[in-house]
Write a structure and sequence with these properties.
With 277 residues, the protein is α/β, with parallel strands linked by helices. Helices cover 31% and strands 23% of the residues. Helix 1 packs parallel to helix 4 and helix 5 packs across helix 6. The longest helix is centred in the first third of the chain and has 22 residues.
Length: 277
Amino acid sequence: MNLYISADMEGVAGVCSWHQINARTPNSDYALYRRFFTEEILAAIAGARAGGAGDILLNDSHGPMRNVILDDLPDGVRVIFGNRKPFSMVQDAERSSGAFFVGYHGAVGEPNAALCHTYTPSVIYEARVNGIVCSEATLNAALLGQWGVPVLLITGDRTTVEGVQQTLPWVVGAVVKESIGQSCVNSLHPRAAQAVIQEAASQAVRLAAHAKPFVFTVPIELQIDVAAVEQADFIALIPGFARIGRRTVRFIHDDYAVVFKAFVAAFRLGAAATAPG
């Protein structure tokens, strides 16, 4: 099995504040939680290899996407490092046999999902595909599904894990914390969280034959409610987008890869619309 790991930081054990996971914040705890982030990835890799996984490709998928401590990784793991990837959190996953989502978080507006957001919280108020409210996990799983790649494992808080399992019931979950609103968690100790992840990862690989690619039926309709009206103004300039409400834009296509790229273009252009200056 060729395994793909998309790793985010908000779902790491103990994380409940942006201060912990933003390297640009003065006097932040980023260095400590960067280590915990890397250790949860190492636990997922160890479990996957114990379960029989072969080649592993890791995509650092948080913020500037250069967080993982590279020299802590075991031999044989390749890493996608850096930002502005066309397919963002699932870049270069199309040749994989299965995927892990490590350290994931809930969709914007989700109750009891610490630091919940959907890609760019300053832009995305809500994202829907074919009427389904989507988290990053849902959006990413559908792109993997278009390539025939099933999601095997999700780690993070209980709301996030169980939310993914409602849509993708074959996914093995590793709950490392209970979120209490947006900025408080009841968390496992990091070492305990890593043990849970390692066991779940091994199980996920062993059960991979039962997993299914997740896809949306065509035509695929993306609707985005944005945070500010000027963001809708800008996004509506992208060919294929239509303004259908005060702060709502729509994009329809039969190819989900095109829809996903349109989504990425929308949140990046939307961010430019409200940038200072």
